[in-house]
Amino acid sequence: MNDALFAAPRPDALAARDLSVLWHPCTQMHDHETLPMVPVLRGEGAWLVGADGKRYLDAVSSWWTNLFGHAEPRIGAALKDQLDRLEHVIFAGFTHPPAVELAEELVRITPPGLERVFLADNGSAAIEVALKMSFHYWLNRGHGEKTRFIALTGSYHGETLGALSVSDVALYRTTYAPLLLTPELAPSPDTYEGEPGETPREVATRRLGDMRALLERHAHETCAVIVEPLVQCAGGMRMYDASYLTGLRALCDEFHVHFIADEIAVGFGRTGTLFACEQADVSPDFMCLSKGLTGGFLPLSAVVTTDDVYQAFYAEYAAGKAFLHSHSYTGNPLACRAATATLQIFRDDPVLERNRELAAHLARRIAPLADHPHVGDVRQTGMIAAVELVADKATRAPFPATDRRGLRVYRHGLAHGALLRPLGNIVYFMPPYVITPQEIDFMVDTAIAGIETAVA
């Protein structure tokens, strides 16, 4: 065993070792010539602790995965128990208690009609499964002409080629466009892009008209419509009215296309209900889940779908209708055990009630930013809040991307003990549910000071 791995390393030495061998995600590595890498040794609740002992409030839940705090003891105890039982087994022809218990619980808590669970490794993989499964369903039902998908402008569903194909964030998509499928794009019901004086519901109604027009032209060749319910996260924390989901469900039924709900980022209590679709009282044909599913401990995703979809694949082997999609670590017992422990916390603790109180406190704290001369919008859905920085408040003209104003907020946050990682010029908050009102105050105060620095 290499004892050096477990000794407390010097932060600068660990950062140097990292930069000599690693390539980090969603990062221009050249930035680290002037932006120090932050070595972290442990986590405690809503906080990360650096190798130098400095503490950072994790305001982004480590890319939106951590629900109940770092090193949550109940999830950790479940994993330790599972380590002594079974670490992994092939999931074709074999099963195990953690996977069965997880699937049973997901069927119980997801919207009515979702009765079958397909497990995968991460969010992008879940999207790939849903897209392929929808296409394959129609093929098995004798509708091979259905080969296309409809997504929303500003959408983001992941970075594998299928998931990226139904995404519309130029930063991620443009470079790889020659490799991608081309979806039909329906205008997003994003309230921020509404007409002057329009209510969120009126924006949703108008955009449903656009969706109807698109389906009238393309439903015959469309497998599914895929959306992020209520909040388009990576696309800028764009938010919209729940009535859009109600109308979309009706349109998908009318035009005989599937409704895929990407709840990877917004599921498990983020929007104020356990799943965002609940706020519209709708059941999608496919619900994609990941991120918070394991409380931030291990990678895992799930696609929960209907028995009708399942039955389209259920046939004698010779019929050639099987869904031949797999991941080596499908149904990993450790990840499934972390997930069942996470869902147990939702049963044992008043999570959603407490989240509503925390969200109300967060709303009060960020409300004054609406009057800031360089803030175009302050918006919130449950435990997700965002502040849009603009160069001109009257016209909402954005700062040039090359200004990297968000990076200034990020730097300020690190210097003052908060992990804030804006999306371009959008400063957002998506903290763990264990955050306290006092920690919210610190988080918002640090962000406000960072905003002042960024727009100076």
From TrEMBL:
Residue(s) at site: Participates in the substrate recognition with KAPA and in a stacking interaction with the adenine ring of SAM: C26
Enzyme Commission designation: 2.6.1.62
Taxonomy, superkingdom: Bacteria
Keyword Cytoplasm: yes
Alphabetized UniProt keyword annotations: Aminotransferase, Biotin biosynthesis, Cytoplasm, Pyridoxal phosphate, S-adenosyl-L-methionine, Transferase
Catalytic activity reported: (8S)-8-amino-7-oxononanoate + S-adenosyl-L-methionine = S-adenosyl-4-methylsulfanyl-2-oxobutanoate + (7R,8S)-7,8-diammoniononanoate
Residues the record lists as binding substrate: W63, Y156, K291, S326, R421
The keyword Glycosyltransferase belongs to this UniProt entry's keyword annotation: no
Pfam families: Aminotran_3
Pathway(s) served: Cofactor biosynthesis; biotin biosynthesis; 7,8-diaminononanoate from 8-amino-7-oxononanoate (SAM route): step 1/1
Subcellular location as annotated: Cytoplasm
Binding residues for pyridoxal 5'-phosphate: G123, S124, D262, H327, S328
Matching NCBIfam families: bioA, PRK05964.1, PRK07030.1
Record function comment: Catalyzes the transfer of the alpha-amino group from S-adenosyl-L-methionine (SAM) to 7-keto-8-aminopelargonic acid (KAPA) to form 7,8-diaminopelargonic acid (DAPA). It is the only aminotransferase known to utilize SAM as an amino donor.
Subunit and partners: Homodimer.
Protein name as it appears in the record: Adenosylmethionine-8-amino-7-oxononanoate aminotransferase
Gene that encodes the chain: bioA
